[in-house]
Amino acid sequence: MTRTMGHTKLPVSTDQATLVSSSVDVSACLVELAEMFRARLTPNVSLEVETDARILRVGCRKEDLQIAVMLLLQNAREALPMGGRISLSATCSASPSVKAEVEISVRDNGIGMPRQTLIQATVPYFTTKSNGLGGFGLPLVEEFARSVGGRIQLESEPTVGTLARIHLPIAG
């Protein structure tokens, strides 16, 4: 099942002056983040990173992009209680009807989500974890993407895994 997320109203650490003047090299940012995240993985979980050879820049603060992707990576890791694989990638997508954008994807081959969970995944405070242990990650990722003119998409199938995509406009 695929779902393009709507809008939430959670604050993210962005101000418009910073967004206008900042741009981030997505590939370099993801490679750096992956190196930090690997230290958090158990030996039975692998992380693969694939980025576009071109320099892809998006208009945001590096820290905000790293937090959003880290939240997706943490969700992927938690979906792999018996081990598995996480893939992190960044590509440039464009078509005649869509302005060029960067697509950042986090895919896991974990437990996946049933349809009802996927529908509620970006609702603030909704969680499948114990009380007090979740409910903010995906809403914050969604708010970050929206705040810079982007969006997120989630696809998931129980026992197959989850694919989370952040679509962000290319800085220009």
TrEMBL record:
Pfam families: HATPase_c. Its EC number is 2.7.13.3. InterPro entries: HATPase_C_sf (IPR036890), HATPase_dom (IPR003594), His_kinase_dom (IPR005467), Sig_transdc_His_kin-like_C (IPR004358). Residues 1-172 form the Histidine kinase domain. Keywords: ATP-binding, Kinase, Nucleotide-binding, Phosphoprotein, Transferase, Two-component regulatory system. SUPFAM superfamilies: ATPase domain of HSP90 chaperone/DNA topoisomerase II/histidine kinase. This is histidine kinase.
